[in-house]
Design a protein that fits this description.
This is Co-chaperone protein DjlA. It is a single-pass type III membrane protein. Its main location: membrane. Pfam families: DnaJ, TerB. Helices cover about 75% and strands about 0% of the residues. By secondary structure, it is mainly α. Among the domains are: about 35 residues, no CATH class; about 130 residues, Orthogonal Bundle (TerB-like). A two-stranded antiparallel ribbon has the order 1-2. The longest helix has about 40 residues.
Amino acid sequence: MRIWGKVLGAFFGFLLGHLIGALIGLWIGHRFDRGMGLQSAFRRGPTQEQQAVFFHATFAVMGHIAKSSGQVTEQEIRVASNLMDRMRLAGEQRARAQESFRQGKEAGFPLRETLAEFRRASQGQRDILRFFLEVQLQAAFADGRVEDGERAILHTIADELGFSRIELARILAMAEAQMNFFNRAHGQYQGGGAGGQQYRQEAPSADRLKDAYQLLGVNESDSDQDIKRAYRKEMSKHHPDKLAAKGLPPEMMEMAKEKAQEIQQAWEWIREARGIR
């Protein structure tokens, strides 16, 4: 229980206005203590319940997107399975993910309610909400393009999570670039030991360099300063430790690390191509 705000408030209030001043100072000190308590509670970090909501919503909404075209395709199932592999899900955890995916495919799946619950659990933190949206875009791009039914669901997701149509279009373009970036560069991966996977140091092709610009959300005509600023902004949004502190489930840390590695590599390629120091 916090009391120092009340004590100091009453003391200085008494010095300034005797009894009435002490009462006013006591009230102000109480508000201060209460505000500090709320901030401390927020800094305690995400609960297991919040992370469980994130986990369920991720696979349930992914299943709903997969079913939007009427029939779940082999590619969509593969995307979900690959996501589970990247999260290293096995046993009970994998069974829970598969059950959530199945629920999302059912008729009458409460999409808006599920998204609203997730938004409440994440406390409306934009970086977490955006990471969730980016994961769902992987399901939408499973067959290489976004169908009308999938696009309608993405609009609903964006609306419920507080993203405008303009923001969604920008994130869509960056997600498509990320998919191309990963597919084209996947052959360049080599073992990185304890540090994970690393890219071989090879000069990027024109297509890869184009994807790198799109991955950072910039144009080739942008200035070096603007590109460097965009890189730092994207790294800040996708820093694994920051996302974990804001509620990212531990199982998704590997995905966050991969995303950060791709952003870093995109910047390195652009930096080298432009001679940025």
